[in-house]
From TrEMBL:
Natural source organism: Leptospira montravelensis
InterPro entries tied to this protein: aa-tRNA-synth_II/BPL/LPL, Ala-tRNA-lgiase_IIc, Ala-tRNA-ligase_IIc_anticod-bd, Ala-tRNA-synth_IIc_core, Ala-tRNA-synth_IIc_N, Ala-tRNA_ligase, Ala_tRNA_ligase_euk/bac, DHHA1_dom
Domain Alanyl-transfer RNA synthetases family profile stretches: 3-709
Keyword flag Transmembrane: no
Record-level Gene Ontology MF annotations: alanine-tRNA ligase activity
Record protein name field: Alanine--tRNA ligase
Reaction equation(s) it catalyzes: tRNA(Ala) + L-alanine + ATP = L-alanyl-tRNA(Ala) + AMP + diphosphate
Annotated coiled-coil segments of the chain: 340-382, 752-786
Gene assigned in the entry: alaS
UniProt-annotated location(s): Cytoplasm
Binding site for Zn(2+): 564, 568, 666, 670
Domain commentary: Consists of three domains; the N-terminal catalytic domain, the editing domain and the C-terminal C-Ala domain. The editing domain removes incorrectly charged amino acids, while the C-Ala domain, along with tRNA(Ala), serves as a bridge to cooperatively bring together the editing and aminoacylation centers thus stimulating deacylation of misacylated tRNAs.
Entry's cofactor comment: Binds 1 zinc ion per subunit.
Amino acid sequence: MSKTVREIAELYTSYFQGKGHTIVPSSSLIPKGDPTLLFTTAGMVQFKPLFTGAVELPYTRAASVQKCVRTTDLEVVGKTERHCTFFEMLGNFSFGDYFKKEAIEYALDFSLNHLHIPKEKIWVTIYLDDDEAKKIWMEAGIPEERIVRLGKKDNFWGPAGDSGACGPCSELYLDRGPEKGGPTCGNNPNCKPGCDCDRYLEYWNLVFNQFNQTVSGELLPLKQTGIDTGSGLERVAMLLQEVDSVYDTDELKSIIDKIETLSGFTYDESTKQSFRVITDHSRSVFFSLGDGIYPDRTGRGYVIRRLIRRASLFARKLGIYEPFLYKLVGTLRDLYSVRYPELKDKAKDIESILKKEEELFLHTLEVGLEELESLLGQLKENNQAVVTGKEGFRLYSTYGFPREMTKELVEDRGFGFDDEGFEAELEKDRDLSRASWKGKKIQYLTGLSASPELKTEFLGYTETKSQAKVLYLFVDGKSVTEANQGTDVVVVLDKTPFYAEGGGQVGDWGYLKKEGFQFQVQDTQKENETFLHLGMILKGKISVGETINAEIDTTRRQNLANHHSGTHLLNGALRRILGTHVAQKGSVVSSDYLRFDFSHPKALSEEEIISIEKDVNEAVNANIPVKTEVLDINAAKQSGALSMFDEKYGNLVRVISMGDKSKEFCGGTHVSNTKEIGYFAIIKEGSPGAGNRRVEAICGDSVIEYFLTEFQTLAAKVETHNLSAKETFGDLKEFGITTVVPAPEDLQSLFANEGNAAVERLRKLRESLETELEEKSASLFKAKKKKEQLSFQMNPELVDGLLKKAHSFSKGKVVTEVFSGVDAKSLKDLADSLKAKEPEILCLFGTSEGETSTLVFMCNKVLNERGIHCGDLLKETLVMLDGKGGGRPDMAQGGGKRPESLGDALEFALELSKKKLG
């Protein structure tokens, strides 16, 4: 049954090619046309447009071996047998072609006759109500007793990202034998797939795509059903090679062998975490650099930088204090250039970039670690348990410590980390970082600074599609004369309807087409007057000199126009309501939202936000025609049009007017009438820096979706609150929420009947709901705590149970117990109950809540006469908790930290008591 990783991959593609599938090369780790994903995380990512029917199908069956990066479980990589950030996924796909029957038959045939997995070891799971899948599996030869029904959490997959194809699924499992079940399931006849033990391991997931999930979570039927399967190559190899870890499979083991040679350490139980982290992270970084994802301060580059630095930290545990990862590039090249031949030529560049990045980090690492140790020492001295966001950001900006790395380091030492504070500090730095990244991105993609003489004619103010001639093509930064299917390309046209990012508005998406050819435009940028269409060839090939049809995504363009015109109305409303001191400091206009930065000395009040929202919505409702003029710059200024203070303009400027509500210099795209904007709502207000404020808002149907989501979330909170109240107090209705949460159909009706006036009403309703939830939750919490304390204090079973557990000595008894979330008064009441039943007893109680711990020691005077002094005993014990406290001979109380040490502290107090009472 044993096969190498390479053999498994080749078997897979060969098998599905024989079944009529087009073998599609792995796409880049940068997902194209999907802003909801940071990396390519599954084989189906590159096929998302094909599942939804958004593009013309170049084929109806496909198979691939896809490189993937996922960092959701980064902190456990190295600690477990199977977690990786980089992996390869085998996948076969159908787009409106075959469905469940063929997908199941292919998977079983390949498992039995090509991987040679014994049939009696294969189990399958199906979605709860998928009787069709069950019938097909039984007809294929899997007995009913080895078919398990599981719920949505396990057997409903997708989408990849916030939207896309999804549906119920069926998974194949390998029974590895009862010995893998461990002490819990080793002899358990009811153990089956879905259990948390290691006996049954899933190795193939068959997704039956039937729905398209929108960004708001709505499930719509797909135009065509489809099949999306995924099988982790490393996991299949682990099963076939009969090893316990993916790190023991042939390819990963060869990387580990290289690390052993370079480090002088042996891969064993004491070093395996460091070896595994370095092995995994080196692969992720190698493939990411190969796809042009370079270390940076934001986005994907930030993740790669974090992986490099995390691997460097683990290398230190192997005694490696110099650049090290780059030395693995040769091994990685030899391993993977067979499946990914492009990596062979890129290896030297990858090695160079990686070495420089390691040197950059190691240069400041020693100083940074010293600074961190000093910081933690100061916190300990001041009895502080949390590293603030400001301190964490200083480690990031000065010493290059990524947030998650600092968090991991401080939490290992028992301290907390202020994530929100760090985010606030980071926000101040983001705008400059984004601008810098954008410039580097364009330079990388074009490989040149486009000639000022080369001017693309922009048609996008009046046209959404046009014919155009291809002037230049760029692949990997180099000028080429033609490019083929599957290639990432930058296309320069002589004219275009595509708006290039500028003036805060993001670039257009869409397609370039001709017979037999389709190119997906995933971004549009501009250098000087040259428009750059960034994207991937989905079908056919393209050559310089050809004439093609350029078509923008009109739905997205309309959303951009809504948000851009909404930005102008917002600017006008701000100046009318807050004052003419308001000046624009920056903006972002996307298809999903708008962001507007402006000068203003203080935060906006709730009343001001409502007034601004109302002003904009009144302008939307007024059906104001949007007028466009091209004027001499002096004439434009004299007309009263607003402009950005630090923006550079030519002699002629474009002026956008919306009646008396707005008049601004602007080169962006807009609605023709304010009514098209539909609705306007502010969703966030904050500060990007001293003296400035930032407003985020949404327009059009996004407003309806926003309130639907908000009230669905609130409805879930109300349900949880009411259940909690009922569980605690039965039918005490005063703890229930009285404000009625509108149903989705009620919200839709409100917008339909009241239009944008619904925004103000829904905002107030949401606020009243949130206020009532907060008030009732606080009241419920107090009442619940009081009930719990009463139950705790008057519990005879607890008293009798503690008396039975008491330690008996010649001069008295001692009872010790650690509680959670119990207040000191309740512990004293409990001790009084014990002393009443047993006069010769010493009560040593501890309790914890969060990061704090409390001790309560009590006894009767009869034990004081025998040498017990609760106050002295407590002071000696609190040393173990870094705490303070004291008291009388018969009662003492104190507090400290380190709740995890409460048990040890009470054991210590027991030993001290024994010396007096033994």
